[in-house]
Amino acid sequence: MTAPAPPHSQPARATFAGWLGTAIEYYDFAIYGSAASVLFTRIFFPAADPVVGTLVSLSSFGVGYVARPLGGLLFGHLGDRVGRKSILVITLTMMGLSTVLIGLLPGYSAIGIAAPILLVILRIVQGISLGGEYSGAALMTVEHAGRGRRGFFSGLMNTGTAAGMILANVIFLLITRLPEDQLLSWGWRIPFLFSALLVGVGLLIRLTLRESPEFAEVKDEGEVRKLPLLEVLQACGGRVLLVTLGTVGAGIVFTMATVFSLTYGKSELGLSTSGMLGVLLPAALVIMVVIPVYGRLSDRIGERPLFLAGAASMIGLPFVWFALLNTGNYGLMVLGFALLFAGYSANYAVFPVFFSQVFPISLRFSGMSIGFTVGTIAGNAFAPTIGAALLDSTGGWVLIAVYMAGAALISLVAGCFLREDAPVRESIARPEVAAG
């Protein structure tokens, strides 16, 4: 067994482990989203009308998010019962295996209807594992970091979002240069199989971690809850709902910018996938730069003001983004993405600290997992499908921007009511504490 690292190195290791897990999560997210947007219609859903096929393919992207609450319930409960570390090893293994198996899956032409069915099943397994991944990684980072550094470490962890997305799209950009017959036969599999390398590194890092010190203290004091899922809903149900609503704005904005934009660029702007990625990827570097800055700022002024400022900015920025996108000018298009990502980053940077600290330690994994995973259904899951349907029905982008702005408004209102310093109801009685 790998020996745990010295205690003084644990905050950095926990942050890197969380960063790598988040990077892998969003790598898988971006790879699947890109493939569903431009390739899977022909590989797994070729029998459908082109428009219908695109909608069905993008819906398979959303299925993984629908499965997340199951993972959130399961791993949230186990994370509050047995600890954070072991759950993160399990979720990363599940996530990696399901992604690699997608890369090995025969297409519709080889096994017929079994191909899309197996694809959806693997997407569901992927979604279940993701249900506990982000919350667990966030808690390990936050609970290992000392007071006054949580925002910065959490911000560093959250740059994994952009790192995974950039890596995925660089690889996707490279494979799309292959001749079409090679791309559709074996080239599309490369990004999925590459995930195995990332998961292997992630597991090595996670096995060297100690358990979260805050959870270890709860365990030592005999405060581990017997039924954390039920208790968090009884004592903190309102906060779970607010976390859910607080998640949707950033989720929809990010998904529309990184997944739907590929479809929009192809159908409305006449850009190839590689052309659109050439606009998206440079702008995504903004996330890598500004999220740690926002995280450090949150250590000084608090997480809530930044969360609210980011949500407020995302109400207006979708209109600016589309307006700049439609100019067709490369520099202005990059600027549109950069502005949208800057507003998104202010909101997303503080998710780990802001959302985790509204729950007591003994119920934190359950509360955050339920709220965050349900929020991803309302936010990320079907945003590309909704965007494609709105575009097909209206022929324009205005209602799509309204949809994105409305989601940001919901998150803004939720953030106004969600306070990390609110006292927890004393209905979490000691008789409900697990024995031993």
Structural account:
This protein has 436 residues and is mostly helical. It has two domains: 9-211, MFS general substrate transporter like domains (Growth Hormone, Chain: A, Up-down Bundle), CATH 1.20.1250.20; 228-421, MFS general substrate transporter like domains (Growth Hormone, Chain: A). It has 20 helices and no strands. Helix 3 packs antiparallel against helix 19 (383-394) and helix 7 packs antiparallel against helix 8.
Write the layout of secondary structure elements.
Elements: H1 10-38, H2 40-43, H3 50-66, H4 68-81, H5 84-104, H6 108-111, H7 114-144, H8 150-158, H9 160-175, H10 180-187, H11 189-207, H12 213-220, H13 228-268, H14 273-301, H15 303-325, H16 330-348, H17 351-356, H18 364-381, H19 383-394, H20 398-417
Helix pairs in contact: 1-3, 1-5, 1-7, 1-8, 1-9, 1-11, 1-13, 3-7, 3-18, 3-19, 4-5, 4-7, 4-18, 5-7, 5-11, 7-8, 7-18, 8-14, 9-14, 13-14, 13-16, 13-18, 13-19, 13-20, 14-15, 14-16, 15-16, 15-20
Instruction: Tell how many strands the DSSP assignment holds.
Output: 0
* Full CATH superfamily name of the largest domain: MFS general substrate transporter like domains
Gross geometry:
globular
What Rg, in angstroms, do the CA atoms define? 21 Å
Count of alpha/pi helices = 20
CATH architecture of the largest domain: Up-down Bundle
Compute the number of structural domains. Answer: 2
Sequence of secondary-structure elements? HHHHHHHHHHHHHHHHHHHH
> Could you describe the largest sheet, including whether it forms a barrel?
none
Assign the CATH topology of the largest domain. Growth Hormone, Chain: A
Sheet-strand content, in percent, reads under 5%
- Residue-averaged pLDDT: 86
Helix-strand makeup class: mainly alpha
CATH class of the largest domain: Mainly Alpha
In the predicted model, the low-confidence regions spanning at least 5 consecutive residues are 1-7, 423-436
Query: What is the helix fraction of residues, given as a range?
Result: over 70%
GO cellular component, one term: plasma membrane
Function: May be a proton symporter involved in the uptake of osmolytes such as proline and glycine betaine.
InterPro entries: MFS, MFS_dom, MFS_trans_sf
Transmembrane segments: 51-75, 87-105, 111-131, 152-176, 188-209, 240-264, 276-294, 306-324, 330-355, 367-391, 397-418
